[in-house]
Amino acid sequence: LVSHRKTEPKCQESEAQPHESQEEPQEEPQEEAQDEAQAAVREWSLRPGLGSNEMPGFAADGSQTLPDLSGHYSVVATVLRERPSLYNDLRSRTTPTGVLLAKCIKPGIDNVGHQLIRSLGLVAGDEFCYEVFRELFDPVIQRWHGDRQHVQHVTDLDPLKVTNSAIDPEGGHVLSVSVSAGRNLQGMRMPPACGRDERREAERLALRALRALRAPRPLGRSDLDLDLDLDLD
Prior knowledge:
By secondary structure, this protein is an all-alpha fold. It has helices spanning about 15, 30-45, 75-80, 85-90, 100-110, 130, 135-145, 195-210, 220-225.
């Protein structure tokens, strides 16, 4: 006789064991996140042209002689070709904030340009460049804008002249309107020459001024699209 023993199927071990609860991931500490953000800013500022390191090309410290500009098409290149000694006459001058002429003409030297697309090739590193290097700035500006000596900038800040008249009363043409304004801060170097600390100070001053405006509601960071965490107190 053969006896058949009936056995119960074995349960899988995973079913017999209770499910272990998975721990929820802990949020990253705020200090660690701030450290990573600061590290990212430092890494960004180390890139040539975005921080204290200059872009490759013509030396902005004035240590190089002027290269051959026969194939350059900017206005500043034209003026320097007509007056070859002008750069040597001005290269040793320094503005009160430390800007050299080489810094101002670097865009026009590094970029050859195109004969059909003319550009200035000259930038101002601060407000003093127009006087310290006027022997170069005046002829470049004159060729681009006309005679500088006979042009008077008019500033009119009378709020009574602002009208609320509809630009397009019938609504058949105008889809949107935007107003932008750009200004430089006195005593601070302009974007072509300023450093990271100066950019932060300019942002701090701009924030303080904008938040002091009389607005229907206080201006917050979301209104200004600013990324830096600044102490405005």
